[in-house]
Amino acid sequence: DDVAARTYMQAVRDQLPRFMLDAGATNANRWEGEIAFRSPEGLARTFTVIAQVVREPDGSVHHWATIARDITEERQARAELDRIATHDALTGLPNRVLFIRKTTEALERAGTTGVKVAVLFIDLDKLKHVNDTIGHAVGDQLIVSIAKRLANATRPNDTVARIAGDEFVVLCEGVLDDHVALDIAERIRTAITRRQDRRRRGVPALEPPHEGPALPRRVHRSR
C-alpha cells in the first residue's frame, strides 16, 4: 500500500551509499546490496536492492531505477536451518558441530593472546537406568534440568554444549590459571549433584559420587 511504499522508499533514500546520492558528480551508475527497514506494522524487513542510475544525454542524473526483492522469510528460514543444524533439539544447547567450531575459534584467539582455554567434560551416570526404569520422558526432563543447571553454574561467556545423549561439555575462555577452571568444575559438580524435590519437579535426583568428583576435570592449555 501507499504507506508501505513510502516507508520502503524512505529506507532506500536513507541507506543507499553516498556515492549513489552524489551520482551526478561521480561515475557510479549501479549499486547492489541489502536494505533493512521496519514496516508500518512494526516488523523488520530486509530487501535485496539493485539501483541503476538513468542519466540524461549530458550525463546528469534523470532518475534511479530500482528492483527490490523481500528476502525476510528466506533469511529467517536460513537462520532456523542453521539453528537446527547447530543446536541440540531437546535442550537448545549448542551441539557437537557448533561446539567444535567455537572451540577452534577459541583456540585461535588463545594462540594470539596467550590466555588459556579450559574444556570440561561431564558424563552423566545411570541415565540409561533412568530411561529403562522410569521412562524416557523422565530421562528427558533430567537432561533438560541438567542443562539449566550447567548454564546457571557457568560464567556468562562460557559455552555449554550437549555432544551426546548423556555427555555435556563446557568451553571456558579467558582462564587465567588452572584454579579458575577447577573452580568452575567444582561449581558444576555441586550444581548437578544437588538434590531436587521429586514431588514438585518429578525428576529423579542425582546421587553425589562415592569416589571422586562427578565429572572428570581436564584443563586444555593453548599458548
Q: How would you describe this protein?
A:
With 223 residues, the chain is of the alpha+beta class. The protein has two domains: 2-75, PAS domain (Beta-Lactamase), CATH 3.30.450; 87-201, Alpha-Beta Plaits (2-Layer Sandwich), CATH 3.30.70.270. The chain contains eight helices and six strands. A three-stranded antiparallel sheet has the order 1-2-3. A three-stranded antiparallel sheet has the order 4-6-5, with helices on both faces. Helix 5 (127-133) runs antiparallel to helix 6 and helix 6 (136-153) packs antiparallel against helix 7. The N and C termini lie far apart (59 Å). The model is unreliable at 207-223 (pLDDT under 50).
Tell me the major beta sheet: 3 strands, antiparallel
Average of per-residue pLDDT values? 81
CATH homologous superfamily designation of the largest domain: Reverse transcriptase/Diguanylate cyclase domain
Low-confidence stretches: 207-223
Supply the CATH architecture of the largest domain.
Answer: 2-Layer Sandwich
Structural class based on helices, strands and sheet pairing: alpha+beta
Q: What's the end-to-end separation, in Å?
A: 59 Å
Total domain count:
2
Our count of helices gives 8
Estimate the strand proportion: 15-25%
Shape: elongated
Predict the CATH topology of the largest domain: Alpha-Beta Plaits
How do the SSEs run, as a string of H and E? Answer: HHEEEHHEHHEEHH
* Fraction of residues in H or I helices: 40-55%
